[in-house]
Amino acid sequence: MFTSTNNTLFTSAIFVALFLTTHLTLAQEHSPPRYKDSSLSTPERVKDLLSEMTLEEKVSQMMCVWQGKRQFLDTSGNLDTKKMETMHPNGIGCIARPQDIVGLGDSNETPARDAASSVALTNAIQKYATEETRLGIPVLFHEEGLHGFQAKDATSFPQSIALASTWNTDLIEQVYAITAREIRARGVHHVLSPVIDVARDPRWGRIEETFGEDPHLVSRMGVAAVKGFQGRSTKLEPGKVFTTLKHMTGHGQPESGTNIAPSNISTRVLREVFFPPFEAAIKEANAASVMASYNEIDGVPSHGSKFLLRDVLRKEWGFQGLVVSDYFAIEQLKSLHHITDTNAGAAVIAHGVGVDLELPDPAIYPELIKLVKTGKYPESSIDESVGKILTLKFNAGLFESPYADAEFAELITGNQEARDLALKAAHQSITLLKNDNSTLPLDVNKGETLAVIGPNAEGVVLGGYSDQPRQTVSILEGIKNKVADQSIGSSLSKSKVLYAEGVRITENASWKSWGRDEVVFADRDENLNRIKSAVNIAKQADKVILVVGGNEATSREAYQDNHLGDRSNISLIGEQQELFDALYETGKPIIVVLINGRPLAITDISEKAPAIIEGWILGQETGTAVADVLFGSVNPSGKLPVTIPRSVGHLPAYYNYKPSARRGYVDSNISALYPFGFGLSYTTFNYAAPTLSKNVINKNENVSVSVVVKNSGDMAGDEIIQLYVRDRSSSVTRPVKELKAFKRVSLNPGESKTVSIEFNAGEALAFYDINMQRVVEPGIFDIMIGPDSENLDTLSLEVR
């Protein structure tokens, strides 16, 4: 029988229990959810967050906003949170290019955001996403970083094809580390770079965005770029951004050389030419995401290719990261490729093969909500993609540190360190193609009169995916600065600089031309008058420096029918050849400087001009770099990452062709005008006879090739030693040669170095046999080493 005392104690116990239970429940309700606990592993956090999400919230993570930004910004370009809440009540996974104002079209006409206003916008959006949405999931912003951050004031490095000419992976990593730093400083953690397409048709306007025609060179450049962007950790370190490999695949050999056209490529060629850069960047550098390509292969668009995105990318290579669409490409499954006639059909096709995130605006993937609710598509597939998106966000540290510092962004954007690196990259990109009778370098102390002539002399060509950097230096300005530099000569013996435009390629040429739809070519009659004026200027000079090539309007991404950028020819466009011919008639020595995004067939110029420099597109420091090379302050060391053909009729012209190709033409020399890997120096390099560490090896053994290289000239310089292989007899046809390794060395005058290059037979000599199995077949292999793909010493290696 209970006493009153016992009853009181019992009642108190119940009260305490209820009190503790209530407060524990309240504490649990107000404690942070597990997915916000940074001490947990990323998979644990992803699993917990997914369990809390509605279907609508999940699909919202699979969508992005670019042009739609204007719908939630006020008239001043600032975030309107009420509009954001109305437009995206379930949050949004991604926002594209926060540095631009309104998206496509006007972005090249309307001034872009500076560092401070970019940070203000990204911070405002993150504050809304993390504090005002139900689950507080931060936004993943992305930007472009092809050859530097595509943003106002950011550093503009040489275009990719020029960077590839350096054959310097350490330099490439440094370039993309600076690019990453400038992007991350504005609150962005994801970049749509690098482009690692292998480019095999110079008519294609996007060849300038690539690292060239060779799978090995592209692989090495691509791996270096990813390491520069991302660092070496799975989770982003300060100043790093996650990368996107573009574009998987076959994009670089489109039918007729026109962008997004079908790529008629066999499976073997895919595996041996186009796949290796992607596989290397994933396995060696842990690239975070991959972008599918616009084109089709064998009737299947890449955005609907189970073979590419599931079988090869996921299963064979073990890729665990994110697959994103190219801009508007999922919608193109319906409107361009016609493999479905509905948005829902496009959603099922693209997502079914593994495209996780739709870019750049929510056009197709909103259909997935209805498809799941009606039982026509499994929610488990949605979870798979959302898990990858959330993984990227957790690994980026967005849940802990979503905000950027405007003062820091302003401080490091385009700073002196970045400018110095841009100049160094431009120096090493410049390739000397011809230098008869030591025409170059010029001597500033001779007091010569130099006529600087040409459409690319006074302006600076920055190439595609560019914005306006803090400063640019034109070639004309660079030459004038060099001539006026009192530190390099006597003020009493200075050269004199004259200038004439010569011809104009297009009207209003500038980096903005890349984004304008219409290309307005210069009036021919006006150009002929300009040529007359240029001839008069040339007659007053001792030497002519002729700066010709192309610009952002004549070599660019053809992203829609009224915005074209591919060419049917690869000769000098417009009246540029006529300008050269007229100047040549004056009898003055002509030093030709090419500034262009694609290799140009300059056969006539190659025969007549005593000196030719291939500059490609050299970035913001173009003029300083070119002047330094012209006057010998810098010894050129670039090597071609592509073949320069004699004419458009010689295409395809890539060096690693099959034995039955290139028999010859009845009316023309079949050889390249300038071969892959070619590049001269102001000094000379002599190669001794190479040696092998072993003459007979087993299939998986390593072997070294050694060669003594001597600088036999009187100027310090860099040489790039290249190693090629050929299988003399094989079960399927093999290329006549394939680049497998290279090494850059610096040599002082008279200095010799023994250069050893080691390779593994199982990697370097393997190929896909008749059964599409990757094998090394026993036999004799030619091991070739030298300064370019044509001038090689050959050794025999037996593989057992």
Can you walk through the features of this model?
- This protein is an alpha/beta fold and 800 residues long.
- Among the domains are: 421-650, Glycoside hydrolase family 3 C-terminal domain (Rossmann fold, 3-Layer(aba) Sandwich), CATH 3.40.50; 685-799, Immunoglobulins (Immunoglobulin-like, Sandwich).
- The protein contains 22 helices and 26 strands.
- It has a six-stranded mixed beta sheet with strand order 10-15-14-13-11-12, sandwiched between helices. Strands 18-26-25-20-21 form a five-stranded mixed beta sheet.
- Helix 19 links the parallel strand 13 (543-549) and strand 14 (590-595).
- Helix 2 crosses helix 14, helix 17 (475-484) crosses helix 21 and helix 18 (524-539) packs parallel to helix 19.
- The longest helix has 27 residues, at 4-30.
- Residues 1-5 have low confidence and may be disordered.
Largest sheet: 6 strands, mixed
Shape: globular
Quickly count the helices.
22
CATH level 3 topology of the domain at 421-650: Rossmann fold
* Low-pLDDT ranges: 1-5
CA-to-CA gap between the ends?
97 Å
Q: Strand share of the residues? A: 15-25%
Read across the widest sheet, the strand sequence of neighbours is 10-15-14-13-11-12
The Rg value, from CA coordinates, equals 29 Å
Number of DSSP strand runs = 26
